[in-house]
Specification:
Blueprint (H helix, E strand, L loop, with lengths): L12 H20 L14 H25 L3 H23 L3 H8 L4 H7 L5 H11 L2 H22 L3 H9 L3 H26 L2 H10 L14
Helix pairs in contact: 1-2, 1-9, 2-3, 2-9, 3-6, 3-7, 3-9, 9-10
């Protein structure tokens, strides 16, 4: 059994992990430079667009927290946050491409007990994904489907304190797994920024954000365009 007072990550991971986190921060800074300093300006001022933008910002916030957790030697917590990050991006996609006016209204209500109860009838992750895969562009759905197939179910274990985190606490967290999860988180973050760019209505910004990952393939899961 691993000593609970020792590092959760393998000792050799520190330098590589910190370098990847630093590179990830550079990636986000470059993404932010694609947007006005005043923040995201939506092309359509509607509840639907505002809610979708909020979900994108939540995805981006989770990415920042996941990176911080890895640097704090809390990889199991980071893994749980990555699962939340995915669902924030999925919610944004669902709001943009699938949600009907009644569903949008439920999420746009002021926070009251009645509104909270009404929101519980909204689709869960599996139903949202199924609908998004039918309606959203392939450039977005491919990433959502891949994460769902290879990562979502295992990461659920971290949210619910299941077999995966309990084993990792005892045996340590593999270096390569930590590095790959950071890259996956960066990929989700990039998709959130792409969706924000779309919500601004600027084709120039959309193109700039979409292609930016080609300068940061070392910290992303995606391959550069041919």
């Amino acid at each position: 059994m691993a000593d609970p007072t020792s590092s959760a990550l393998e000792s050799s991971a520190d330098d590589k992990l910190l370098a990847l986190v630093d590179r990830s921060e550079q990636f986000e800074e470059a993404l932010l430079m694609c947007f006005p300093s005043v923040g995201t300006l939506l092309s359509i001022d509607s509840d639907q667009c505002r809610l979708a933008a909020s979900a994108c910002h939540l995805c981006i916030e989770h990415a920042s927290v996941a990176r911080a957790a890895f640097t704090m030697d809390a990889p199991n917590s980071a893994s749980a946050v990555l699962r939340l990050q995915y669902e924030a991006l999925l919610r944004a996609a669902w709001l943009v491409y699938v949600a009907n006016p009644a569903q949008i209204s439920k999420l746009g209500q002021d926070l009251t007990q009645k509104a909270e109860l009404a929101a519980k009838s909204l689709p869960g992750a599996s139903e949202m994904l199924a609908k998004v895969l039918e309606a959203a562009p392939q450039g977005l759905t491919a990433h959502l489907a891949e994460f769902n197939q290879y990562s979502r179910h295992a990461l659920n274990s971290y949210v619910h304190s299941g077999i995966h985190p309990l084993r990792r606490v005892r045996e340590g967290f593999p270096e390569e797994m930590a590095l790959q999860l950071i890259r996956i988180s960066n990929g989700l973050m990039h998709m959130a920024y792409r969706m924000l760019a779309t919500l601004t209505g600027s084709q120039r910004r959309m193109n700039k954000v979409t292609l930016l990952y080609e300068q940061f393939t070392d910290c992303c899961p995606m391959k550069p365009a041919a």
